[in-house]
Amino acid sequence: EAQVTQNPRYLITVTGKKLTVTCSQNMNHEYMSWYRQDPGLGLRQIYYSMNVEVTDKGDVPEGYKVSRKEKRNFPLILESPSPNQTSLYFCASNNYLGGTQYFGPGTRLTVL
Amino acid sequence: KQEVTQIPAALSVPEGENLVLNCSFTDSAIYNLQWFRQDPGKGLTSLLLIQSSQREQTSGRLNASLDKSSGRSTLYIAASQPGDSATYLCAVIPGGNEKLTFGTGTRLTIIP
């Protein structure tokens, strides 16, 4: 089954404790993205990747890191999480520039 | 900076009615526009993608139109059903990169 998977689905952590949210797709897509969704602010793009080792900032990259060492994986790293990073995070992939986006199920992160 | 607006924020209609959801964007230099639905607690599911050169796209009971010059897109849902209840989001993509900008969505409730 073609899908985008994210882990963990739910995470509660404390300020300053480094964490990684994994994202993997099995569709051999070139493009992958991370978004956060907040009430009243909607979905905002954090980072996107156009291929292995090629990444670029979205609208809200501060406090996040990404890497794309393999085509199928695009982890999101929070080096020192803060409470304002409490949010619902989505990973997505698509197979060509501007193509249909396939979303993962989301990761709900709470930073205390 | 691109801004995407969806009005109304919420809409309730009786089952069986036809309805139109609106999406407005400020910068007409877009590559394409996508419509998604999001069910509570779930990820986004792509409904329709309209290339900038197209005027409309259809899938089943859904029809999406695009008027770049006026910065508007509409999603028409025919013969609405309770299963159509969800939040509907539109997203625009500029040319040359994957920086999607999402609207804040319209929460649709179909009343049986």
Chain-wise SSE layout:
The complex is a heterodimer of chains A (112) and B (112).
Chain A lengths: L3 E4 L2 E4 L5 E7 L5 E8 L3 E10 L2 E4 L7 E2 L9 E3 L8 E8 L7 E2 L3 E5 L1
Parallel strand pairs in A: 2-11
Antiparallel strand pairs in A: 1-3, 3-8, 4-5, 4-9, 5-6, 7-8, 9-10, 9-11
Chain B lengths: L3 E2 L4 E5 L4 E7 L4 E9 L5 E8 L4 E4 L2 E6 L4 E6 L8 E9 L6 E2 L3 E6 L1
Parallel strand pairs in B: 2-11
Antiparallel strand pairs in B: 1-3, 3-8, 4-5, 4-9, 6-7, 7-8, 9-10, 9-11
Shape of chain A: globular
Mean pLDDT of chain A: 95
N→C terminal distance of chain A: 36 Å
Counted beta strands of chain A: 11
By DSSP, the count of extended strands of chain B is: 11
Which percent range fits the helix content of chain B? under 10%
H/E topology pattern of chain B: EEEEEEEEEEE
- What's the shape of chain B? globular
The radius of gyration over CA of chain B amounts to 13 Å
Derived from helix and strand composition plus strand pairing, the structural class of chain A reads mainly beta
Order of helices and strands of chain A: EEEEEEEEEEE
The oligomeric state is heterodimer
Count of DSSP-assigned helices of chain A = 0
The mean pLDDT of chain B is 94
Task: Explain what you see.
The complex is a heterodimer of chains A (112) and B (112). Chain A has strands at residues 4-7, 10-13, 19-25, 31-38, 42-51, 54-57, 65-66, 76-78, 87-94, 102-103, 107-111. Chain A is mainly beta and 112 residues long. In chain A, the strands form 2 sheets. In chain A, strands 2, 4, 5, 6, 9, 10 and 11 form a 7-stranded mixed β-sheet that branches. A 4-stranded antiparallel β-sheet of chain A has the order 1-3-8-7, with no helix packed on it. The model of chain A has no long low-confidence stretch (mean pLDDT 95). By secondary structure, chain B is an all-beta fold. In chain B, 0% of the residues lie in helices and 57% in strands. Chain B is built from no helices and 11 strands. In chain B, strands 2, 4, 5, 9, 10 and 11 form a 6-stranded mixed β-sheet that branches. A 5-stranded antiparallel β-sheet of chain B has the order 1-3-8-7-6, with no helix packed on it. The radius of gyration of chain B is 13 Å and the shape is globular. The model of chain B has no long low-confidence stretch (mean pLDDT 94). At the A-B interface, β4, β5, β9 and β10 of A face β4, β5, β9 and β10 of B.
